Amino acid sequence: MPPAPPCPCCSGLRYRECCAPFHRGEAEPPDAERLMRSRYAAFAQREPTYLWKTLHPSHPDRARPEDVVVRELRAFAQAHQFPKLVVMDRQAPDAQGTAQVLFFAKVFEKGKDRSFVERSDFRHDGTGWRYLSGDTLMLRELTVPPESLTLATFPR
Q: Could you tell me the pTM of the whole model?
């Protein structure tokens, strides 16, 4: 039997022990970083329903029809490859309950580098951590190596 594949979130764990339980609805990510990692893995594993489920109720896409958003997420995931994720920084929830994660996502579309750095905001909705919003910089917009950034030095 072949070895179990590594998790696309780059945690170092096998997929079945890392993000798969979240994708299957068997567990909720315990913190904002694990949610962010599971969302990256959901793009790589083409799990658009999970991506919808993990949007915060106040995210703008939640005001749109679920089937439309899921179809768009599926198309995006199918058109891209997601080979690497690097988490550079994280911040525990602030007084309003918003946690932040800064990450570098390697993403390719038909061989073209679409990699980016994002500072994401997450908030718990009473059931689990959810993606609220994010500020994104494309790799070509950066003047420093992406892995050198922190939440304090992110240029937005």
A: 0.95
How are the residues of the chain apportioned to helix, strand and coil, as percentages rounded to the nearest 5?
35, 30, 35
Q: What is the DSSP string of 78-114?
A: HH-EEEEEEEEEEE---TTSEEEEEEEEEEEETTEE-
Q: What average pLDDT score do residues 52-65 get?
A: 97
Tens digits of residue pLDDT in 43-57: 999 999 999 999 999
Average pLDDT along the chain: 96
Instruction: Mark 138-154 as b/e (b = at least 16 C-beta within 10 Å).
Output: ebeebeeebeebeeeeb
Cα of 40 vs its chain's centroid, Å: 4
So what's the pLDDT on residue 2?
66
Neighbouring-strand partners of residue 138: 116
To the question of domain 15-148 being in CATH 3.10.450.50, the answer is yes
Whole-number Å distance between alpha carbons of 122 and 30: 12
> Any idea what the Cα angle at residue 110 is, between residues 107 and 112, rounded to 5°?
55
